[in-house]
Amino acid sequence: MIEISNLEKSFDGNQVLKGISCTLETGKCNLLLGGSGTGKSVLLSCVVGLMKPDLGSITFDGTVYTNSKVDIRQEIRRKIGMLFQGSALFDSMTVAKNVEFPLQMLTPDMSLEERRDRVEFCLKRVGLENAGNKMPSEISGGMKKRVGIARAIAPNCTYLFCDEPNSGLDPATSIKIDELIAEITHEYNITTAIITHDMNSVVGIGDHIIFLHQGKKLWDGNKEEILNAQVPELREFIFSSSLVRAAKRVEEEDGPQGLEHLAAEPLSEV
Ligand SMILES: Nc1ncnc2c1ncn2[C@@H]1O[C@H](COP(=O)(O)OP(=O)(O)OP(=O)(O)O)[C@@H](O)[C@H]1O
After folding, report:
1. Which ranges carry the ABC transporter domain (predicted)?
2. 215: phi then psi, degrees, rounded to nearest 5
3. Helix (H/G/I), strand (E/B), else coil: 110
4. Using 50, 70 and 90 to split pLDDT, how confident is the model at 23?
5. First-residue to last-residue Cα distance in the chain
6. 9, 40, 197: which to mutate for ligand 1, most atoms within 8 A of CB?
7. How is domain 22-52+61-263 classified at the CATH fold level?
8. Which residues have C-beta atoms less than 6 Å from ligand 1?
9. ipTM strictly over 0.90?
């Protein structure tokens, strides 16, 4: 579990995080939800260690990260897997080499054979067992996200941070990627944090949702609770989503269907 306590961050007098306290729970998909410019990326950057907060603390499974010694911070960072918005694959390396890269960096004691086995295992886990020799330019956006996930989990990460994993994907592919992240989170009991403004993700994989608005946490809860939340800013956010508007129209015309029903349509592989 990651505990974030009273986090504050300003840029040139502009306060972006205004005393955020929340937990990112183990074995759950923790969604950082909110509109543009509400501080989701800054919050995650502070947690990952790419930015230093002005105030507050971050604790990873009982170990304080903020202001601790370099070796403690490095040890925690080694346990973090990142899935970047644009997948951020190395274009000049094959898919397999991309997945092997963090193993070469982080686990120098691993033998070549162990590394190859781990790459094979991770590619299989994300459904890309036959794509190892392909170049990133030869695969689809959904496949690139899968490679990004395989690369993130390759060094046996304890924490997985995903920056808008659905960006640039069509809705069906987005749902499959969400489902894969959720499966991996639950299967390996990883603490996963996902930046999103996608209501599809909320109703699909929102084990724990933290709603940010103008640098403050206004609400947290799960996907079953969110539709009944009585926070005006959250309600406005939810009910401006095209998914929820479509569900409401269906409900008005055909009776109650439920948002989960819309999100649970069977999909083909991507
Ligand atoms: N390095 C920086 N220097 C100055 N201001 C910054 C910096 N990084 C972020 N900001 C400001 O912090 C605010 C929050 O940005 P942030 O990227 O966290 O929003 P967000 O919720 O992730 O938005 P989006 O969903 O659009 O990505 C914005 O006003 C942004 O301009």
Report:
1. 2-239
2. 80, 5
3. coil
4. very high
5. 32
6. 40
7. Rossmann fold (3.40.50)
8. 11, 16, 34, 36-42, 197
9. yes
